[in-house]
Amino acid sequence: MAAMTLSRRIAFVRGAFWPTVCGVMTVIAVVAIALVPEPGLGTFVAIVGAALTVTVSARPITRALYQRLALQHQARMDAAIADGDDATRRRLLDETDEYYRLYVRNSERMRLRLRASGLVSEERYAEALALAGELDVDKLPAGERPAHANLVAWCCAHAGETARAVELARATAAAPAPPRLKPYLLGTLGAALVLDRQPAAAVAPLREALALGGPRSAQVVRRLYLGDALAALGRLDEARAEWNEAVTIASKSRWGRRAQERLAAPVPAAYR
Predict the structure, then answer these.
(1) Collapsing DSSP states into helix, strand and coil, what is residue 140?
(2) pTM value > 0.85
């Protein structure tokens, strides 16, 4: 299944559900009939009950398989970004878009945000911001609003609207959000503060984001910006240590290459 797209993997699991259930039901029926000398209504009821139990039990297993496939797909995406593999990243984004189109109802907003994320990966921040702006935030489900606000804040920070980015990122990081999003919200706040020339305020959220962990594709960005904040504060040895960590984490990524440029510069040039 390694060469299959995400949608084909999902289709494989979906297609295997009922044949598997029916196969187990057939085995139960054959065994029950073989063991009972004179099958009657009680045997039939027992077979139906066992079949229902198998069906109900199989659904959580199927949902767990869906979740595992999604996590594997995201891990491949993170690896492609960290390794600077743009071709693979674009292919995986296309697979995600196809999955939304085929299997998720009313997925237009998800596909739009996905396209915006793809533009962010290519550092086309103004275009990504315009695309994200097409969504009516008030109509978004509450669970989607923190991630959307984080996307907008990141785009603003890198499109030159740093004051707006700081305001939005600070409000989003302070509001309730799923724990898995917390390091991303803090990382965006830290980066926005660095780009808004507030390095002293950027250090704490960036350190907290790093401590909370995450994939290499996220950690390398946080290390780079923490190094930039420390350099702006004149703490050059600490800054170089962070840039070195960024290179170690993902030397082939856009952010890892920037860290290498910082290290190669005779005098740290970032945010002097």
Answers:
(1) coil
(2) no
